[in-house]
Write a structure and sequence with these properties.
Number of helices: 3
Distance between the termini: 70 Å
Number of domains: 1
Strand content: under 5%
Shape: elongated
Radius of gyration: 24 Å
C-alpha cells in the first residue's frame, strides 16, 4: 500500500464521517442541541447558586 492510497482512503473515511454534519443534511439540529445544553447548564447553576446563597444567609458562623 502506498502513502497515496493511504491518504486517499483516510480522506474518504473522513468525508463519509463528516457528511451527516453538513448544514444541508442536519439543518440547525446541532445549534438547537447546544442551545438546550447551555440553557440547562445555566438554569442548573442559577438554582444551585440560589440554594447555596440561602444556606449562607442562614449561617451565623460565617465570615463576611
Amino acid at each position: 500500500m502506498t502513502l497515496y492510497k493511504f491518504f486517499w482512503g483516510l480522506g474518504d473515511l473522513l468525508d463519509y464521517t463528516f457528511t451527516p454534519l453538513q448544514e444541508d443534511v442536519m439543518g440547525n439540529v446541532i445549534n438547537y442541541i447546544f442551545m438546550i445544553g447551555i440553557a440547562s447548564g445555566l438554569l442548573f447553576w442559577l438554582f444551585t447558586q440560589k440554594k447555596l446563597s440561602d444556606k449562607a444567609a442562614n449561617d451565623p458562623n460565617q465570615l463576611k
